[in-house]
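Limitations
The structure tokens in this dataset are predictions for the assembled complex, not deposited experimental models. Users should treat interface geometry with appropriate caution, especially where small molecules or nucleic acid strands are included. An illustrative entry is reproduced here so readers can see what is and is not provided.
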Amino acid sequence: MEYTAAQSGFRQQHNMRLRNSSMDGSDGSQLFDDTSATGPGAQGVYRNQQADPQAAGLPGQSLLSDPMSNLAMAYGSSLASQGREMVDKNLDRFIPISKLKYYFAVDTVYVGKKLGILVFPYMHQNWEVSYQQDIPVAPRFDVNAPDLYIPTMGFITYILVAGLALGTQNRFSPELLGVQASSALVWLIMEVLAVLLSLYLVTVNTDLTTIDLLAFSGYKYVGMILGVVAGLLFGKLAYYLSLLWCCAAIFVFMIRTLRLKLLSEAAAEGKLVRGARNQLRMYLTMSIAAAQPVFMYWLTYHLVR
Amino acid sequence: MARSMAFTLYTLIQTAILCTNAIAVLHEERFLSKIGWGVDQGVGGFGDDPGVKAQILNLIRSVRTVMRVPLIIVNSACIVLLLLFG
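Predicted assembly:
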């Protein structure tokens, strides 16, 4: 009972927040701020791009007075816009681009807060993701929502830092960067597949999507980068200490985040719920969280000698 | 050592093909029924969620059904490529 009251209290508080921001003139459910001078936002940009080819026929009239070439230009531009529509539609079938856009709707404040939580999750009180009419809110409005920006940047930074570390040991060569990148990518894919398989086997009814799992698995790169940089600057002891700190932080972060998503509501509040299924779910959460420090050590120990 | 983790995407594809082959090869009558993992022994109650064993048996059966034909194609392609390019 308290859980639903708290959740509806969230939604009210959140809707008020959204209503305030929507008073700025833009649509409250929009992901990105409107920075374009011409259109009213992300969807507006597409509409403008479709409207432009037809408008381009008019200035062309000043260049070519021949009506046949006007016709040809208008036909060609409408064909081009049709082609772009078809490509967009088909691409959207294979890679859900609109869903991906949600995960990159971040801003600086969110990134700062999230990095702080990843390194020091002990003070953060409220781990629930707030919803807006059953759709999770974009990351820029809620610090608990998973995003893909930090994992992507973390992955790329990890590869660069690995190259740097290998260079300080005189073991660097350009193809080693590619090897590091593909190894880390393969480990990431295997981890996400293993988590998906175990979620299927335990029949957890959760709203965690594959991209959410990818985001959670990518958060460990932050800790890895901090460990390797500390090891490069201050030696092996600093590497072990900072890696220990980041491993503990990621462990706590994963447990607190996954607890709300995987466990049933009663168990998530901390009450002890008996039953084989809840036990299985608890073990699953624990093992997912415990796999993170293992990967963090496995992927970085050869970089710091 | 960087050698031990020199995984490439090609290794991942190889792993996937080998694992899928391993699951698809488990024969229903000759093997799975003998060890109590047959199709009829999986579905327990309908009310509650199926257990882990039922999910595994379901997974094996679906992999066998769905991936039979694609595996034939992929395996033949692999054999031809390995024969030609070593």
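Some entries come with short summary sentences. For this one: Chain A has a mean pLDDT of 78.
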